[in-house]
Design goal:
Elements lengths: L4 H12 L1 H15 L7 H17 L3 H4 L1 H18 L7 H10 L1 H11 L7 H7 L13 H4 L6
Helix pairs in contact: 1-2, 2-3, 2-5, 3-5, 5-6, 6-7
Length: about 150
């Protein structure tokens, strides 16, 4: 599809505005683990916890660790889903998330359809369910279809 102004504004609003980016990242993470729908406990809660940790934990290297873990898991899950690279090399996913997160995110966005991060479309069709909480962030741990 060719780019247009309305889609560009929607994309920028979803990824740049803090009030929307939490929902966008949560939906993107849900897509990476093989879930079609984003849920409150399964996908939003981990990002909310990471945000709170980043805001209130006073030691700088450790306050960003949950965010880096979620970004690493999302990238790793999408690589496994598309069959790109060797799944044993998680360290590279971590480095991209830590050293150049915007570049890594752009790579992931180019490789996935808009539906993988478009939480607003899910909200229009149906509401967000509560879901179940899981500390397993990788698709392999969850036994998801995306790891095949």
């Amino acid at each position: 599809k060719p780019c247009n102004v309305a889609d560009a504004i929607k994309c920028l609003a979803c990824w740049i505005l803090p009030c929307f980016s939490l929902c966008t990242m949560s939906k993107f993470y849900a897509s990476s683990v093989g879930d079609e729908e984003c849920t409150l406990l399964g996908h939003v809660a981990p990002y909310l916890g990471a945000l709170l940790c980043a805001m209130f934990f006073p030691i700088p290297p450790f306050n960003s660790a949950p965010c880096i873990l979620l970004r690493t898991a999302t990238r790793h899950n999408f690589r496994g889903k598309s069959g790109t690279g060797d799944p044993r090399y998680l360290f590279g996913d971590c480095l991209i998330g830590f050293l150049c997160s915007p570049c890594g995110l752009c790579q992931e966005l180019r490789s996935q359809p808009v539906e993988s991060w478009d939480w607003y479309a899910q909200m229009k069709e149906k509401s967000v369910e509560t879901g179940t909480f899981s500390i397993k962030v990788f698709a392999e741990e969850r036994g998801s279809k995306s790891s095949e």
